[in-house]
C-alpha cells in the first residue's frame, strides 16, 4: 500500500503477490522466451473487492469480475467489472512492477 497521496486521488496499491495472486502462466511459452506470470483470477477479484469495500467503503457490492489470464507486467492496464446494487461499473486496475502489485481506481 502507498501513502495517502494516491489514496486521496482514488487510487490504491495492492500487493497481490503477497496474497498469492500470481500464478503460473496459462498456455504454452515459445522456446527461448521466459514465461510471464499471470494473476490468479479468483484472488485478483478478491483483492479488488477488498480494496473497494475496505478502503473506498463501497456499499452494495454484488460481484467483482476480472478477466482471466492477466499478465503481471509493469504498467499493464485492464478493467474489472463491479456490480453495485445491480448497476455495472468498470474498475481500472494498473499493474505496478513485476511482483504482483497493482492499483485499483474507484468504480467509474
UniProtKB/TrEMBL annotation:
Keywords: Signal. Residues 1-19 form the signal peptide. It comes from the Bacteria. Residues 32-100 form the DUF4333 domain. The keyword Signal applies. This is DUF4333 domain-containing protein. It comes from Crossiella cryophila.
